[in-house]
Automatic annotation (TrEMBL), chain A:
Species assigned in the record: Vreelandella aquamarina
Official protein name in the record: ABC transporter permease
Transmembrane segments: 7-30, 66-91, 176-197, 235-254
PROSITE patterns, per database record: ABC_TM1
Compartment(s) of residence: Cell membrane
InterPro entries: BP-dependent_transpt_permease, MetI-like, MetI-like_sf
Keywords: Cell membrane, Membrane, Transmembrane, Transmembrane helix, Transport
Family of this protein: Belongs to the binding-protein-dependent transport system permease family.
TrEMBL record, chain B:
Organism: Vreelandella aquamarina
GO biological process terms held by the UniProt record: transmembrane transport
Ranges where the ABC transmembrane type-1 domain occurs: 100-310
Membrane-spanning intervals of the chain: 12-31, 104-127, 139-160, 191-210, 249-271, 291-310
This protein's name: Peptide/nickel transport system permease protein
UniProtKB/TrEMBL annotation, chain C:
Subcellular location: Cell inner membrane
Membrane topology, as annotated: Peripheral membrane protein
Protein name as it appears in the record: Nickel import system ATP-binding protein NikD
Source superkingdom: Bacteria
Main location: membrane
InterPro entries in UniProt: AAA+_ATPase, ABC_Ni/Peptide_Import, ABC_transporter-like_ATP-bd, P-loop_NTPase
């Protein structure tokens, strides 16, 4: 490879940072334009005036797409963080006793054996829909794979010679966890959260698309695309193409950044 | 001898996991804010008086403690009685049976296609890391791995069905024709686009996994030694690479049946294909609790058996493990 | 047969984010290998011995920078020529036992090597059986590498290097990790190859055992050839050796009372066994 690997990494980090900044600030300068209806400009194709076209109520698609991405980003990030927190807590809990370990393992196996989307449907059904329900549902479906990884990592650390020596010196359990185990596991958590992130976004969008996720009054990507399904055969292609393309680009950027970070750590 | 013991312990574990799946999904249903009587009645709930509601609740034991209800449900389950699906007005077992038959061909062909394509592309990309071919293939795989399934299905529908008109826009057969009268060719025509869409997404995972295995192999001492014998890259990929990359790829394919099924939910929804995936979505949206529970259990069985096969493959096919077994 | 003239090899590394620098692994190294001899190349780990083997075979990483000349049987050894000769005229017995494909049986490994050397399918099969029996491996022909002992695996590697009657055989640390009995068998096999009129380059850190079969010894340190001497020069106190380092190496051997040179207190090389 001729290009400098670390320079490429810095490039990815820059693109990722810009994306975050753009999405975080979008609610400030978008104002209410994602919801603003123009009755004289319904279902307009993309043009200089309407960049990505308008929907059936004359709302600007570019504003709705951007707002949808910001929403997906927020929901995905919250879900990934919550999922990581659950994974870390339960993996640590499993370290305390063999019975707890068996229970946590059984829970992990159980949740991993139901297809994600079906588990999401079940949890969304149990919680009754809405933003909070989606965040919890996505977090609850995504923690097991990370928890399995962390549990294996913690187990091998606990059996490592230096922890045994530390125990031999009479260090307390709390000291060992704080100074020997956590510093090793935290980078895994960070990378794990970042790797969960794109999955969380895609699953949120899928759930919303199916109609059991975010509220249909919100400009979520899943809502936009479900809406577009109804106009697809009418030739209103822009409704279906742009929101999905935006989501794809955002997920791709996050995914590339996450796997680059995993390689670096 | 060891294989039998291994299989017995894994089957026991499978049973435990399924029981646990049943408990968790039943618990989730109990948590739901949706009134079980409403869920039972479906669209007819407006026509029922409060007295009748109490009667229904008593008949089905909706007022009993959760543990009693769970016990009752498990007993029914074990006697093969999965309950009544109010949205299809059929026993749940019949719904699953019919729907899975329709989905099975879609799932199987998408699975096989993604496995074969994934291995071929992964080996081609990984055998020369950083080459133009590698960058093209892995770029493609990264993009499809980040693509929302349902959006890809929508694009395919938009391009091939709406714009080009090559494939039908919906369903498993032409509307207004009884399903018995649809010819095999028409059925395949309707299955073509859903299958390709579903396969395309599976290809990405298998390609990236195979590519990583292959690239690591090309950096190994074994590959360097093969180069020292004057082997070409193609020779190495064919003689050694295929052995090293195919077992992990098949294993991964078996272990990701859950994702395949999740994908089929979305693809069937977009193409309005009346398979098990579409029934799952309908059950979730219209609160068909018995159907939803049965599908959760059924797919958990499906995924667990896939995982079991994935683990078993290494025991059976990898000489490093298989020989040790026969020697003991 | 093989002449190496002022070979210099550099590999890149990245000390900072944006800078690329070169580290010199082999510096202006010259050697000459005549046919019928075992030529030992002796040096500590990290002296650049394996890289020398890869440079001759043309197996260096793409980023490597090479200067100097390699000549094989009077012809320039260009990358294209190396590709032609690899497995036919040039053979490598690699250092690592991982060089055997863990998923292939011994017979297949040798047969593939024969096919790569230009044998047809059935001829390659025959050739593989012939070589396996020459190295007393017939009973292990259906074994996978993890079922072979270290010495057997090493002999499979030697058999693979022998399929084509290569004129030059490079053996990279062939006696590492073997018990004395197996080690002597492997070294005897290499000597036998040289006696057939081929050139054998024996790369090793083990001067003592190299001397049992070597005709000539080159001592390498930090990528430079300090001295090339006939094996007979390593005797007594090493008076016939020109460089201090070679003399130190010789005197540091267990049979020579483990003496390290008193005038070189800074010298960092580990004692060589």
């Amino acid at each position: 490879m001729n290009s400098q690997p670390r320079l490429v990494a810095a490039g990815y980090a820059g693109v990722f940072g810009l994306l975050v900044l753009l999405l975080l600030s979008s609610s400030l300068w978008l104002g209410d334009s994602p919801l603003h209806m123009q009755f004289e400009a319904r279902l307009m194709p993309p043009s200089a005036e309407h960049w990505l076209g308008t929907d059936a109520l004359g709302r600007e698609l570019w504003a709705r797409t951007l707002a949808g991405l910001a929403l997906s980003f927020g929901v995905g990030l919250s879900a990934a963080l919550l999922g990581t927190l659950i994974a870390l807590s339960l993996a640590s809990l499993a370290m305390l006793s063999p019975i707890l370990d068996a229970l946590v393992s059984l829970l992990i196996d159980t949740l991993l054996s139901v297809p994600h989307l079906i588990l999401l449907l079940l949890i969304a059904f149990a919680l009754g829909g809405g933003t909070q329900a989606v965040i919890i549902a996505v977090a609850l479906t995504h923690w097991p794979s990370l928890a399995r990884l962390l549990r294996a990592e913690l187990l091998s650390l606990r059996n490592s010679p230096y922890v045994a020596i530390s125990k031999g010196f009479g260090k307390r359990q709390g000291f060992i966890v704080w100074y020997h185990l956590l510093p090793h596991v935290l980078p895994h958590c960070l990378v794990g959260a970042l790797l969960l992130f794109p999955h969380a976004i895609l699953h949120e969008a899928a759930l919303t698309f199916l109609g059991v996720g975010l509220d249909p009054t919100q400009p979520a990507i899943g809502v936009l695309l479900a809406d577009a399904m109804r106009y697809l055969t009418g030739g209103y292609w822009w409704l279906g193409v742009f929101p999905g393309l935006g989501l794809l680009l955002m997920v791709l950027a996050i995914e590339r950044f996450a796997s680059m970070l995993r390689k670096a750590l | 001898m060891r294989l039998t013991a291994w299989l017995a312990s894994r089957l026991l574990r499978l049973l435990l996991v399924l029981l646990s799946v049943a408990a968790v999904s039943f618990g989730l249903m109990m948590l739901s804010p949706i009134d079980p009587v409403d869920a039972y009645l479906g669209p007819q709930m407006a026509q029922v008086s409060p007295e009748q509601r109490t009667l229904i609740a008593e008949r089905w034991g909706f007022n009993a403690p959760a543990s009693v209800q769970f016990h009752h449900w498990l007993q029914q389950l074990l006697s093969g009685e999965l309950g009544w699906s109010h949205i299809y007005n059929q026993p749940v077992s019949d719904v699953i049976n019919q729907r899975f038959q329709r989905s099975f061909f879609l799932l199987l062909s998408a699975w096989l296609l993604s496995l074969i394509l994934g291995v071929v592309l992964g080996i081609a990309a990984g055998s020369k890391e950083g080459s133009l071919l590698d960058r093209l293939i892995s770029g493609y795989a990264y993009i499809t791995a980040s693509t929302p399934t349902f959006w890809l299905a929508m694009l395919a529908l938009l391009l091939f069905s709406v714009t080009l008109g090559w494939t039908p826009t919906c369903c498993a057969g032409p509307t207004g024709v009884l399903s018995q009268e649809v010819t095999l060719l028409t059925q395949l025509h309707h299955l073509l686009l859903p299958t390709l869409t579903l396969a395309l997404l599976g290809v990405a995972t298998i390609t990236l996994h195979t590519r990583a295995k292959m690239a690591a192999f090309m950096r190994s001492d074994t590959a360097l030694h093969a180069f020292a014998q004057g082997a070409s890259r193609f020779d190495i990929a064919w003689r050694h690479g295929l052995r090293h990359a195919s077992l992990p790829a098949v294993t991964l394919a078996f272990a990701s049946l859950g994702e395949l099924f999740g994908g089929s939910l979305l693809v069937e929804q977009v193409f309005a294909y009346p398979g098990l995936g579409q029934a799952t979505v309908a059950a979730g949206l219209r609160s068909d609790v018995p159907l939803l529970l049965a599908i959760a259990l059924f797919t958990a069985l499906f995924v667990s058996v896939g995982n079991l096969i994935a683990d078993g493959l290494y025991q059976w096919a990898d000489p490093r493990i298989a020989r040790d077994r026969t020697n003991e | 047969m093989l002449t190496i003239d002022r070979l210099t090899l550099q590999l890149p590394y990245y000390p900072r984010w944006w800078r690329r620098e070169w580290t010199t692994c082999i510096e202006s190294l010259s050697l000459h290998l005549p046919p019928g001899e075992v030529h030992a190349v002796v040096g500590a780990s990290g002296a650049g011995k394996s890289l020398l083997a890869y440079a001759i075979m043309g197996l260096l990483p793409q980023a490597a920078r090479v200067a100097g000349e390699l000549r094989f049987q009077g012809e320039d050894l260009t990358p294209a020529r190396q590709r032609q000769l690899r497995g036919h005229q040039l053979a490598l017995i690699p250092q690592s036992l991982n060089a055997l494909d863990p998923l292939a049986r011994s017979q297949h490994q040798v047969r593939w090597a024969a096919q790569r050397a230009g044998f047809g399918r059935s001829a390659a099969h025959q050739r593989a059986d012939e070589l396996l029996s020459r190295y007393q491996l017939s009973h292990a022909s259906t074994h996978y590498p993890h079922e072979l002992s270290g010495g057997m695996a090493r002999r499979v590697l030697i058999a693979m290097a022998q399929v084509s009657n290569a004129r030059l055989v490079i053996a990279d640390e062939p006696s590492v990790g073997l018990d004395p009995n197996q080690r002597d068998r492997v070294l005897a096999a290499l000597k036998a190859i040289a006696l057939e009129g081929k050139a054998v380059m024996l790369i090793t850190h083990d001067l003592r055992h190299a001397l049992t079969i070597a005709d000539r010894v080159s001592v390498i340190r930090q990528g430079q050839a300090l001295e090339t001497a006939p094996a007979q020069a390593f005797q007594g106190q090493g008076e016939q050796l020109m460089s201090c380092y070679a003399r130190d190496l010789w005197q540091a051997l267990p049979d020579n009372a483990f003496s390290t040179h008193p005038f070189h207190p800074t010298h960092q090389e580990p004692a060589l066994a």
